[in-house]
Amino acid sequence: MSEEITAIDTAELGEKIVRVLKTIYDPEIPVDIYELGLIYDVFINEDYDAKILMTLTSPNCPVAETLPVEVEEKVKSLDALKDVEVEITFDPPWTQELMSEEAKLELGLL
């Protein structure tokens, strides 16, 4: 398999992962976690293992235990992926500046 094909496959897979992430909502805020800016990065290696680097709105977030598990399970539902790892980080800490324009508009911040 050429590198060009692999690059296209992982790019398409990345888009599929983002579509899945946009179906997951923070229970306290009516905006999906992607638009909320909670997803810092999505990595996919050549073995089709995905790693998602994300944060929470605060370290004391009530869904700190369940949200990463939900992200992992929903992304794992993509057949092309072999494994999914979700890593939580608070560096940098989440701020409202990380939200998309769409999320800010939804929450009346614009």
Automatic annotation (TrEMBL):
Task: Give the Gene3D superfamilies listed for this entry.
Answer: Fe-S cluster assembly (FSCA)
The lineage's top-level taxon is Bacteria
Q: What is any Pfam family matched here? A: FeS_assembly_P
Q: Which InterPro entries match?
A: Fe-S_Maturation_MIP18, FSCA_dom_sf, MIP18-like
Instruction: Provide the coiled-coil residue spans.
Output: none
User: Domain MIP18 family-like spans what residues?
Assistant: 15-88
* SUPFAM superfamilies, alphabetized: Fe-S cluster assembly (FSCA) domain-like
Matching PANTHER family, A to Z? FE-S PROTEIN MATURATION AUXILIARY FACTOR YITW (PTHR42831:SF1)
| Protein name according to UniProt | MIP18 family protein YitW
